[in-house]
Amino acid sequence: MAIPSHSFRDVQKQIKPFISSQAVISLTKGIEAKTFHFMSDIIREELPQVPYGVLSGPNLAKEIMAGQPAGTVIASQSELVRYAVQQALHSALFRVFGSDDVHGVELGGALKNIYAVAMGMAAAYKVGENTKSMILTRALAEMSRFAVKLGANPLTFLGLSGVGDLFATCNSPLSRNYQVGFALGSGKTLEQATRELGQTAEGINTIVQVRSRSEELGVYMPITSALYDVIFEGAPPLSIALSLMKNGHRSDVEFVLPHNEV
Questions:
Q1: Is 112 marked active-site?
Q2: Mind listing the pLDDT tens digit for each residue in 47-60?
Q3: Which of 29, 93, 125, 208 is the most buried (most CB within 10 A)?
Q4: Which pTM does this prediction carry?
Q5: Distance of CA 208 to CAs 26, 32, 111, 229, 244, Å?
């Protein structure tokens, strides 16, 4: 299923009468508004007897359609589902890796959309490579902090569905979220940017959901918070960069050196 997250539950209900022995695989990279449910959570709620998995990774559609080599990740608790998807999709130009960290893979796919918006803004401001590198690596730190709080394995973020998808989405003008960020950084409103894009940019909804959830959980996410302030509170885009330069000394790599020992 490759549909926007806001329609995912309704479609599950519609297809329920037609599902018997099939497995359901989600390709949606997003989080349900208000409930903060992942697509796998919705599948379990609406189709409790159905085996399921999620497919995620650096998979820009135009590049795949152009026949360029790519890889993706199928995450499922079911070895049978993982194997079936690998067998069905593997080809000379497309490799499918396996994982059992369903929520970790989903979080990688959803959270990277936030930082693609930030990188689009950065590109509009023509920031240097040093700044882009800092945004990208601190984004990965934010993602892993948040994911661990929700029970995911931080090592998942070192793979294709984590840093792989983050790198591809944050560096590609083909990304819808990057395009929205670039438009916002160029002075356009969110309404103008969304209308011109003519497609869903999951990152905007994800910024709202993750900011709220991170505050509830007490997770430090300065880039996400700054993006929210820029998009919804009228703060200057420069505040995203400034958010990375404050709040004292922190360790470089999450879970290696505790921040209180820096």
A1: yes
A2: 999 999 999 999 98
A3: 29
A4: 0.87
A5: 22, 11, 11, 10, 19
Give the per-residue pLDDT at 4.
86
- DSSP, collapsed to helix, strand or coil, labels residue 241 as helix
Strand-pair category, 52-56 with 94-99:
unpaired
CATH superfamily of 103-247: N-(1-d-carboxylethyl)-l-norvaline Dehydrogenase; domain 2 (1.10.1040.10)
Nearest alpha carbon to residue 1 among 71, 55, 50: 55
CA distances for 158 relative to 55, 79, 124, angstroms: 16, 21, 28
Note the pLDDT of residue 247: 63
Q: Report, as ranges of residue numbers, the positions in the chain whose pLDDT lies below 50.
A: 262
Give CA separation, 171 vs 88, 177, 201, 229, in Å: 29, 11, 16, 23
**Locate tokens 């936030």: which residue?**
114
Active-site hit among 29, 112, 188, 246? 112
List every span in the chain annotated with CATH 1.10.1040.10.
103-247
Out of 3.30.950.30, 3.40.470.10, 2.70.70.10, 3.40.50.720, select the CATH number for domain 5-10+20-101.
3.40.50.720
